[in-house]
């Protein structure tokens, strides 16, 4: 990581270097709790479950094997080592009310004067870990001297290594976007930056572009509206897009979104349930890494994300946005909100195994695109930035 860790001279934030290292005692406590945690008894449902097909959830067989591997073979220290091979930072971002958000990010900073600031944002149940693969490709392709971008891989407020959200007031994607915009300005990118996001990261990107002048363009790999936008030319939607949207989107809307309604309507309850037991998080999150991906990731990669959530007590802190989307009278999805409409450049990478793969014409791999297809995502981003030019006119 030598050479990539030089923060631009124009930065105004307090930024501290960070190393991910969980104390030995916490790891031992985790293993003790995992060992003592009981698997559910065999039932008709868990013996016939198929998470990939969205049938009944996770299977007894998968949970049994995953628990044994997690307890006896999984190496968290190897994950820490890989994470720490990138420059990690904690930025102290002061909100408008004076509250300070400790915001974790991985940064690959360029030495080029005209480098394009580019921020990658994850969603749920993701984390900054899902972007390590694409950041690895960037550092293999470019040296600090010829890297065309300043690359930021952020942990959103409330997720894993970042603090927040506030304990005494409501907090939503508008608040996330405000913190992210302050982060980018504070890192010296007040003249402009590009935002990339999937899932809640895509919602944040939409709000950024529709709210702040500093965000000059956005790239989505997840963009879902409640209904087809007005003025869409149906003739430009391919037959494959239509079939995939009807199949995947239909399944999500009928049998696949119960988790989101639980997050939105009973966040306190599900927060306590999943904070009490790592095996519970394995089932709740492991299901999504099977159902929402094109090819199920290696078990190590699934466990990386869940283990980070566990050690950082992330789950109860990171589901607050679902109240916007699931509660009656909530603000709804930012991609369908005309409040955030704007004329800034937009790109959308269409992956057929996204949970709701809306047709590309709607603008609005799988769900974890940068995690599943990092090379394709990198190529899409470079093509987008090349097309719009920099600075964006």
Question: What would you say this structure looks like, in words?
Answer:
The chain is α/β, with parallel strands linked by helices and 393 residues long. The chain has a single domain, classed as 3-Layer(aba) Sandwich (Rossmann fold), CATH 3.40.50.1820. The chain contains 15 helices and 8 strands. Strands 1-2-3-5-4-6-7-8 form an 8-stranded mixed β-sheet, with helices on both faces. Strand 2 and strand 3 form a beta hairpin. Helix 6 packs across helix 7. The longest helix is centred in the middle third of the chain and has 18 residues. It is globular. It starts with 13 loop residues before the first strand and ends in a 5-residue tail after the last helix. About 3% of the residues have low confidence.
CATH topology: Rossmann fold
Relative helix content: 40-55%
Order the strands across the largest sheet as they lie in space.
Answer: 1-2-3-5-4-6-7-8
What's the story with the biggest beta sheet? 8 strands, mixed
Span of the ends, CA to CA: 33 Å
Low-confidence segments: 360-369
Strand-residue proportion = 5-15%
| Count of distinct structural domains | 1
CATH class: Alpha Beta
**H/E order of the elements?**
EHHHHEEEHEHEHEHHHHHHEHH
The total of beta strands comes to 8
What is the average of the pLDDT values? 88
Task: Report the CATH architecture.
Answer: 3-Layer(aba) Sandwich
Q: What is the overall shape?
A: globular
Number of helices: 15
Give the full name of the CATH homologous superfamily.
Alpha/Beta hydrolase fold, catalytic domain
**Helix/strand class:** alpha/beta
Rg over C-alpha atoms, rounded to the nearest angstrom: 20 Å
């Amino acid at each position: 990581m030598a050479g990539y860790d030089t923060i631009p001279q124009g930065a105004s934030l307090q930024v501290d270097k960070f190393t991910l290292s969980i104390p030995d005692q916490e790891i031992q406590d985790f293993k003790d709790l995992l060992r003592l945690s009981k698997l559910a008894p065999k039932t008709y449902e868990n013996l016939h479950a198929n998470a990939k097909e969205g049938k009944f959830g996770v299977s007894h067989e998968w949970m049994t094997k995953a628990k044994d591997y997690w307890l006896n073979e999984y190496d968290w220290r190897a994950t820490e080592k890989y994470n720490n091979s990138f420059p990690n930072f904690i930025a102290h971002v002061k909100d408008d009310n004076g509250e300070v958000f400790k915001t974790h990010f991985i940064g690959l900073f360029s030495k080029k004067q005209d480098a394009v600031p580019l921020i990658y944002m994850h969603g749920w149940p993701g984390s900054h870990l899902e972007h390590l693969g694409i950041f690895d490709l960037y550092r293999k392709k470019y040296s600090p001297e010829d890297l065309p971008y300043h690359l930021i891989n952020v942990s959103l407020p409330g997720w894993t290594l970042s603090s927040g959200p506030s304990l005494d007031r409501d907090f939503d994607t508008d608040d996330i976007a405000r913190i992210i915009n302050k982060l980018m300005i504070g890192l010296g990118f007040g003249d402009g930056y590009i935002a990339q996001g999937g899932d809640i990261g895509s919602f944040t990107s939409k709000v950024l572009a529709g709210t702040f002048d500093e965000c000059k363009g956005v790239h989505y790999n997840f963009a879902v509206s409640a209904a087809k936008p007005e003025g869409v030319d149906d003739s430009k939607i391919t037959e494959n897009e239509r079939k995939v949207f009807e199949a995947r989107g239909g399944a999500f809307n009928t049998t696949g979104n119960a988790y989101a309604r639980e997050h939105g309507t009973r966040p306190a309850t599900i927060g306590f349930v999943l904070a009490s037991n790592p095996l519970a998080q394995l089932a709740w999150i492991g299901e999504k890494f099977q159902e929402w991906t094109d090819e199920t990731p290696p078990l190590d990669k699934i466990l990386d994300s869940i283990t980070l959530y566990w050690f950082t007590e992330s789950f109860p802190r990171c589901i607050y946005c679902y109240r916007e989307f699931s509660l009656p009278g909530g603000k709804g999805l930012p991609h369908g909100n005309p409040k955030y409409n704007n004329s800034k450049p937009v790109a959308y990478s269409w992956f057929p195994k996204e949970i709701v793969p809306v047709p590309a014409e709607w603008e609005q791999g799988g769900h974890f695109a940068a995690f599943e297809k990092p090379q394709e995502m990198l190529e899409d981003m470079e093509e987008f930035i090349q097309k719009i030019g920099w600075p964006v006119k």
